[in-house]
Write a structure and sequence with these properties.
Pfam families: DUF6529. This is DUF6529 family protein. The protein is an all-alpha fold and 193 residues long. It contains 5 helices and no strands. It is globular and about 60 Å long.
Length: 193
């Protein structure tokens, strides 16, 4: 390898590393700024439902999204050979994982849109603040995962880390909102105020 090729490889790695850090932060901050400066519209509809019915629907959709995220986790563990007693994952599992991830992302968009335009960024309680900030970070983490998937220069261990971060983000968002709504405005660790 020539010195010029080595320098080009280092520059490409540096660019990828900067992108994987700065672009996700920009996305998360952009979502936060929109939510913080957006006037909430509490009468927004979600698929024709308003008020408590919209909250109930969003909780049900979020529960389905959590299920998709857990399936994604199972498929990823299988692909990385981390499922005891399972043979190596065939190629269709990889394609299925990628397609299911894309569908989960699309599935999350109406939920996130309703949260952001109906409530914006709320810091009125620890639960609402955690939910608001986790929602911003989730989409930044998604951007980071896409960058890592597309990059051939970044360390391979970043991919499972980004996937795990996405699953944890979905679970945290579900815990701080869907569980709360489905459990009568109550979740372990948060007061019902």
């Amino acid at each position: 390898m020539s010195a010029q090729q080595g320098e080009a490889d280092r520059n490409t790695f540096t660019t990828s590393a900067v992108l994987v850090v700065l672009l996700p932060i920009a996305v998360a901050v952009g979502i936060y700024l929109f939510g913080a400066h957006h006037t909430p519209r509490y009468n927004n509809a979600l698929f024709g439902e308003h008020g408590n019915a919209a909250v109930e629907l969003k909780a049900q959709l979020s529960t389905a999204l959590l299920g998709l995220a857990l399936i994604q986790l199972g498929l990823a563990l299988w692909m990385y050979g981390r499922v005891p007693g399972a043979r190596s994952a065939p190629r269709p599992v990889r394609r299925g994982h990628r397609a299911l991830g894309f569908l989960a992302f699309l599935f999350s968009l109406p939920i996130a849109h309703h949260c952001l335009t109906t409530y914006g960024i709320e810091t009125t309680s620890p639960r609402a603040a955690i939910h608001s900030f986790a929602g911003c970070v989730l989409y930044g983490a998604f951007v980071a995962k896409v960058i890592v998937v597309r990059s051939r220069r970044l360390p391979g261990r970043l991919l499972p880390a980004m996937g795990a971060l996405l699953v944890l983000g979905v679970a945290l968002l579900w815990y701080t909102a869907a569980l709360w709504a489905l459990n009568g405005d109550s979740a372990p660790g948060f007061s019902s105020v």
